[in-house]
Amino acid sequence: MEAERREKIVHNYLENPLWSASRLAKKLKFPRNTVWRVIKRYKEILTTIRKPQANRRSGTVDQNLRSKILKTIKGNPNLSDRDLARKFGATHSTVRRTRLREGIKSYRASKQSNRTIKQNSLIKTRARKLYDQVLTKFDGCLLMDDETYVKADFGQIPGQTFYLATGRGDVPAKFKFVFADKFARKFMIWQGICSCGKKTKVFVTNKTMTSELYQKECLQKRILPFIRSHDHPVMFWPDLASCHYSKVVREWYAEKGVLFVPKNLNPPNCPQFRPIEKYWAIMKRRLKAKGKVVKDINQMTTWWNKIAKTMDEEDVRRLMSRVKGKNREFLRNREE
């Protein structure tokens, strides 16, 4: 392959001797530096054939080592190149080159919900019903809500923190370490996001969410006015928390005429169907970057609203637009 590429570069160079390396590279779709080096070498030795270099091993990697590496990767693909190099007494570059020649690439493992047996039996049935009865038939907005916890010290919010230095010990400790309290103070955040791109008002508390608190603060004061502000139907899709489907709350839905996703259509433990989980992650990452410490609910509310403004309607709409596709993809994979 390398020899063919060198011959192709030289052939085009001889046909167009006045062309620059950049122009040839653009025509051949090769890196400019590669084209330049091949032409330079051709001018020096007048051939594209490489001479064997002294003290350089010819051929491929030791076949015995290659077999061991491939067999080990097949048995445990979580091993890194350095792990394999230490295991077989080889260099890191040798292991990497061996697996790349075999077409073995490195991929990041994605998170997957650890569902119970009962959840696995429910999820496919509910996902199919949700897709057929709601996502493909309902012509209106989809409103989704959830709760999450945020630490009062934004610097302690989980996530990677980096610092720049010429060496590990060249910066003060406050930049080098993330000091985490064992029992850090935190607030519970509730909010809803809609497929039209709008967000409900946020509710911040340091209490546990109960049916009464959920009905009074979230539904009555925030969800109901939000739904009534729309001039088209809105389907409310609550989380599967027990307080969201309690008897008191279901009676409230019926009394106020709120359309909602029934519990028997709501798939359990499926964060990929709920873009609000991604919304939480984005908000927490941006709060963490501020590194502030809030003292009370009012300060937490102020900071949350300030960061929420950085998520405009188009961002929220883009998140919510993936619900139907994610559900369809999940069902397709389950049926294969």
UniProtKB/TrEMBL annotation:
GO molecular function: nucleic acid binding
Any GO CC annotation of this UniProt entry: nucleus
Annotated Tc1-like transposase DDE domain residues: 193-293
Broad class of the protein's primary localization: nucleus
Pfam family, one: DDE_3
InterPro entries attached to this UniProt entry: Homeodomain-like_sf (IPR009057), RNaseH_sf (IPR036397), Tc1-like_DDE_dom (IPR038717), WH-like_DNA-bd_sf (IPR036388)
Localization (cell): Nucleus
Source organism, top-level taxon: Eukaryota
Protein name in the entry: Putative transposase
Organism the protein comes from: Anopheles gambiae (African malaria mosquito)
